[in-house]
Write a structure and sequence with these properties.
single chain, 362 residues, Translation, Eukaryotic Peptide Chain Release Factor Subunit 1, Chain A, Nucleotidyltransferase, domain 5, 60s Ribosomal Protein L30, Chain: A, 3 domains, five-stranded mixed beta sheet, four-stranded antiparallel beta sheet, 12 helices, 13 strands, 23% strand, globular
């Protein structure tokens, strides 16, 4: 799926997920690939008859009207679109007794095979969410003697799964403890902590093993090496290790550091790919290199100079459409960035959501 289609679908899904009906009056209809759309129209007409039995006059009217609007929309199609169709309609007014009937129609970029009719207080969005949810996931483990953070990296975001602390007391020992006894206590604490980290990693990653693309581990040399060489990490997860990095921190900032230091092996991940583009842009900016941003983007596009166009998803749809089409007309790559990671945030706040790497200077 190209960047614009994915952006559009994600936006619609997020919009639908945020809608709430005052009662069970939001209607979701999925017509699967290859299914006769006229059969769906017939079913919805029957549902209109059933809806006439709803006790609440307001709810009854809203459901019947939503079904009628969907039926009229479906009649615009001579046949079911190639990949199926999803239609959503309902009263989304926040004021009792005031009707605000709205309809959304989605022709997905990939086939849908589910047939759904549901009337509820929320829309059914899961089948569409599956189309924009990145399946591949990477496991991240940042560990030292005092703390560990376990996270996943998926698409354009990382997610912190678990934070653990060890209670490690370092080089200070209580009075009266012999050196040997103190060292034994420290070793036991370290061992028990690594066991807990290994168990937490198993809980976080093992159930999703088929989609787990790889595991990246980071930390100070001694601790992370002991963790990997010892019998702490599940053998199936050990097989998935694709990189081991020396990092300074092991909290959330350590996870970000781990992602940055593993760019080579994570280069296909959306967030990492976009971070690389923005960081390359910033380096070129310092040296007055082949870049453009802000109002100069249009000039660069018109000259066919853009190699990679970076757009913030916070731009309005019209601006994204216009710039996307101009970029594609000259075979430029386009990335649409969210602002939930540092570089995406910087693109939006510092460069007004538009930046480009150029083939040649304009």
């Amino acid at each position: 799926m190209d960047a614009k289609k994915e952006y559009r679908l994600r936006k619609i899904v997020n919009e639908l997920k945020n809608k709430r009906g005052r009662h069970t009056e939001l209607v979701s209809v999925y017509v699967p690939k290859g299914f006769d759309i006229n059969n769906v129209i017939g079913q919805l007409a029957e549902e209109q008859g059933t809806a006439s039995n709803i006790k609440s006059k307001t709810t009854r009217k809203n459901v019947v009207d939503a079904l009628e609007k969907i039926i009229q929309h479906l009649r615009l199609f001579k046949q079911t679109p190639e990949n199926g169709l999803a239609v959503f309609c309902g009263n989304i007014s926040e004021r009792e007794g005031i009707q605000d009937l709205q309809l959304w129609s989605v022709e997905p970029h990939e086939p849908i095979y589910v047939r759904i009719y549901r009337c509820d207080q929320t829309f059914v969005t899961e089948p569409l969410e599956d189309l924009v949810t990145t399946k591949e996931v990477y496991g991240l483990i940042a560990i030292d003697n005092k703390e560990a953070t376990i996270a996943t990296l998926k698409g354009d975001r990382y997610n912190i799964i678990k934070k653990l602390t060890s209670g490690y007391r370092g080089k200070h020992r209580a009075g009266g403890q012999s050196q040997r006894r103190f060292e034994r206590i420290v070793l036991e604490q370290s061992h028990e902590f690594k066991v807990r980290v290994g168990e937490a990693a198993t809980t976080a990653f093992l159930d999703n093993l088929k989609d787990l693309k790889g595991v990246v581990v980071g930390g100070p040399a001694g601790t992370k090496d002991d963790f990997l060489e010892g019998d702490y990490l599940h053998h199936e997860l050990k097989k998935k290790i694709i990189a081991v990095q020396d990092i300074t921190y092991t909290d959330e900032s350590g996870i970000r550091e781990l992602i940055d230091k593993s760019k080579d092996v994570l280069s296909n991940v959306e967030m990492v790919r976009q971070k690389i583009h923005v960081q390359r842009f910033l380096k070129e900016l310092i040296h007055d290199g082949n870049i453009a941003y802000g109002d100069d983007i249009e000039k660069a596009l018109n000259a066919g100079a853009v190699e990679v166009l970076l757009l913030s998803q916070n731009l309005n749809d019209e601006a994204i459409d216009d710039l996307y089409e101009k970029a594609k007309a000259t075979s430029a790559n386009v990335e649409i960035l969210s602002d939930n990671f540092e570089e995406g945030f910087q693109l939006w706040n510092t460069f007004k959501g538009k930046a480009a790497l150029l083939r040649f200077k304009v």
